[in-house]
Write a structure and sequence with these properties.
The protein is an alpha+beta fold and about 240 residues long. Helices cover about 50% and strands about 10% of the residues. It contains seven helices and six strands; from the N terminus they run ββαββαααβαααβ. Strands 2-1-3-4 form a four-stranded antiparallel β-sheet. Strands 5-6 form a two-stranded antiparallel ribbon. It is rod-shaped.
Length: about 240
């Protein structure tokens, strides 16, 4: 006994095999009509039942199940990720801006610092009483004001836009892995300040710190960008990624 679904979407049956064959002959059903046996709840094509399959044609077999050990296809790279060259360009632009901001203070300090360096290079104890203290204070003040001013701007832009000045110029920004804004904690505190603090801590180790450990740490951080996901160490710590705008 079988129940079928007619062309009007209604169920008909239970009906015997011969009765359904007569419906097929009369055009009221065909081999693609949905049907189920009386003792099951699974709907199949009439042609899938042996009673209605064309002569000499066995009912279709279920598709083979792929073995559990079949390796998954590698995921395609994220097309939204910023390319490595663009990220490097953004970083270089930020470094140039930092240098430009330091120039006024360095110009003021230049002559006094040169005096100290010359005396030290000649093996003499620098005579600090001969230094222009107001000039030193002015130069140090300019360095501090311009550096802090740039820092405030960069932190604000990272927090609000996910961009430094360099990243804004080249058209990329930092976001969390789910694409949401990175904010202050992920965008600057963990991604920039924490990495800088680790580098400074490495440089405090006597002898090998400043000349080996700190440079090695930052090189490892930068070189991790060559991973498939293009995430540097600071991206992994802050759970961020850099994407195109």
């Amino acid at each position: 006994m079988f129940t079928i679904i007619g062309g009007d979407g209604r169920e008909y049956g239970p009906a015997t095999t011969d009765q359904i064959r007569s419906w097929i002959t009369a055009g009221r059903a065909n081999l693609d009509t949905k049907a189920r046996a009386a003792d099951t709840t699974e709907w199949k094509r009439l042609g899938d039942f042996a009673e209605f399959a064309p002569a000499g044609v066995p009912p279709p077999l279920a598709p083979p199940v792929a073995p559990a050990t079949t390796p998954a296809a590698p995921s395609a790279p994220d097309p939204t990720l910023a390319d490595r060259g663009t990220r490097l360009m953004a970083r270089v632009i930020d470094w140039i801006i930092e240098l430009v901001c330091a120039v006024p203070g360095l110009i003021v300090l230049g002559a006094e610092v040169f005096k100290i360096a010359m005396e030290a290079s000649q093996g003499r104890e620098p005579d600090f009483s001969q230094l222009d203290i107001p000039r030193l204070l002015l130069g140090a003040g300019l360095l501090l004001v311009f550096s802090l001013g740039l820092l405030v701007v960069q932190v604000w832009m990272l927090t609000v836009r996910g961009q430094t000045i360099g990243k804004r110029i080249v058209g990329i920004r930092v976001v969390k892995l789910d694409g949401s804004p990175c904010g202050f904690v992920n965008g600057w505190l963990m991604r920039e300040l924490l990495i800088t603090a680790i580098g400074v801590a490495c440089s405090m180790i006597p002898f090998i710190g400043p000349i080996l450990l700190r440079p090695a740490f930052h090189i490892v951080d930068w070189c991790l960008i060559f991973r498939d996901d293009q995430k540097c160490l600071h991206d992994q710590i802050a759970t961020t990624k850099v994407v195109k705008v």
